[in-house]
C-alpha cells in the first residue's frame, strides 16, 4: 500500500513526557500537513511543509510542539512536556503541488492517537 | 474569518433511501475548493467529492452529488441509494488559496438496515 502511513497508531504517555509521531507521505507528494482532531470536532490545521520547508504554522502549535521534514520525505511531530490537553488524534496528510486536476486534494493517514494520563 | 458550519450533528437514513447533509461556509476569497470527506469508524479520512468554486456545475461522483450555491455559500452533500457502508462521520471542508483546509465539526450519519 502506498498511502500515507503514520506511526505509532496509539500512544499512551504520562504527563510531562515527550512523544514523537512519524508520518510517511505518499511517495511523490511534496506537501505534507499535520492536523489535530479531538473527539466531536473536525481536524484543525497545525502546520505544513513543502518539501523540507515548513511554510506555515498555526497558533495552535505552541512552543512545545515541533515538526520537521528533514529530507523532504517523512516528517516527525514532537510534543515536549505533554499535557492532558494534548490528548487528541494527530493526523498527517499529503498532497502534490501543483495539481491542477486534483485541486490540491490532500490524502490522510489513519492518524496517531495520543492519550496523556 | 473563514468558517465552515455543519448544523446537523447526527442524521440517520434507511438503507436505499436518499439523505442530504448540509454545510455552509464563509470566506472573502473568490477562488477556493470545497470538499466532503468521510471518516468511517476506522478513522481514516477518505475524499468523497470535490467542487471548484469557479465551476457552476455541481460535482457528482456515483451516488454522491453536491448542491453548490455560491451566493448563499452553501455546499450540501446528497447521498442516493444509501448503503450500510456509508455509515461514518462526514466533514465538509473549505480549501483556500493558502491550501490550508478548514473543516466543519462533522455530521455523524447512520444508515439503518
Shape of chain A: globular
Q: Total helix count of chain A? A: 0
What is the strand tally of chain B? 12
Stretches of chain B where pLDDT falls below 50 for ≥5 residues?
none
Helix percent band of chain A = under 10%
H/E element sequence of chain B = EEEEEEEEEEEE
Helices and strands of chain B: which structural class?
Answer: mainly beta
SS content category of chain A: mainly beta
Which residues of chain A form runs of ≥5 with pLDDT under 50? none
Structural features, described:
The complex is a heterodimer of chains A (117) and B (113). With 117 residues, chain A is mainly β. Chain A has strands at residues 5-7, 10-13, 19-24, 31-37, 44-50, 53-57, 65-68, 75-79, 88-95, 107-108, 112-116. In chain A, strands 2, 4, 5, 6, 9, 10 and 11 form a 7-stranded mixed beta sheet that branches. In chain A, strands 1-3-8-7 form a 4-stranded antiparallel beta sheet, with no helix packed on it. The mean pLDDT of chain A is 92. Chain B is mainly beta and 113 residues long. Chain B contains no helices and 12 strands. Chain B has strands spanning 3-5, 10-14, 19-21, 24-26, 33-39, 46-52, 60-61, 64-69, 74-79, 88-95, 101-103, 107-112. In chain B, the strands form 3 sheets. In chain B, strands 2, 5, 6, 10, 11 and 12 form a 6-stranded mixed beta sheet that branches. In chain B, strands 3-9-8-7 form a 4-stranded antiparallel beta sheet, with no helix packed on it. Chain B has a two-stranded antiparallel sheet with strand order 1-4. In chain B, strand 8 and strand 9 (74-79) form a beta hairpin. Chain B starts with a strand and ends with a strand. Chain A binds chain B through residues 31, 33, 35, 40-45, 48, 56, 89, 91, 93, 95, 97, 102-111, and chain B through 4, 33, 35, 37, 42-47, 50, 52, 91, 93, 95, 98-106.
